[in-house]
Amino acid sequence: MRGVKLLAVLALALTAAGCGLESPFYLNPPGTPAQPASTGTPIFYLLHTSQNNEVEFRGYELYYKLYSLDSDGQALMSAESNLGSATFDVLISKSYHPLCTTLHDTSTTSSVIHNAPLIRILPADIGSTLQFLIDLSPAYQSTLSVPYAGGIIPLNRFVPDGNGSLKSFDPAQIASTDSDISAIWNAATISQHSVDVVLYALSYGVKDLTTPIYSNPVYLGYAQINILP
């Protein structure tokens, strides 16, 4: 009888495998910043903690969205500022875009493989606590501070500039037809010369050596940026 039961269990396991059921993978999300960005100072913080030590873990991705300052935009931003239980695909469905360093360093589809996330955590730093500073200040030279490298890297919007690179947050590089702002380019946006930018961060990893996986998103705050010189 015990042998019959064992065969039944094995049969169920093989059936499940044949149906394409995936093994569970979970990535811890980034640490929650002690203080999200305030409107007047577009400085955001991302925390790496020792909890992010899964073998699949590679680093972090940053996603942004621009909102109008009118009442409709403010209401939408308020409704979408608590997506902590959402998924990567939900962020994409709500028109969030990745922050990038170059045109091809990240992807907006989970089916495209990229083993080097925007913020790479080196194996030697897996057990450390690190704080990354994201600066979207009106200096228009948006940057990411990398503490373990002792330097900074540029940050760009996910909008091609037509010359093989990406546009920055410099108002001179923001156009009404840009994919990340065209939907909210209206009279209110133009009259106020500014929009709100919201940032989310996700842990990024690779399972089975090829398939990208993401944690739940963590809200990093929002700030106003100029869109007209």
List the helices and strands and how they pair.
Elements: H1 2-18, E1 43-48, E2 57-67, H2 71-79, H3 88-93, E3 97-98, E4 119-120, E5 130-135, E6 143-146, E7 151-154, H4 187-192, E8 194-207, E9 211-214, E10 218-226
Antiparallel strand pairs: 1-5, 2-3, 2-4, 2-8, 5-6, 6-7, 8-9, 8-10
3D structure, described in words:
The protein has 229 residues and is an alpha+beta fold. It has one domain (29-226). Helices cover 17% and strands 27% of the residues. The chain has four helices and ten strands. The chain has helices spanning 2-18, 71-79, 88-93, 187-192; strands at residues 43-48, 57-67, 97-98, 119-120, 130-135, 143-146, 151-154, 194-207, 211-214, 218-226. Strand 6 and strand 7 (151-154) form a beta hairpin. The termini are far apart. The model is unreliable at 1-24 and 107-115 (pLDDT under 50).
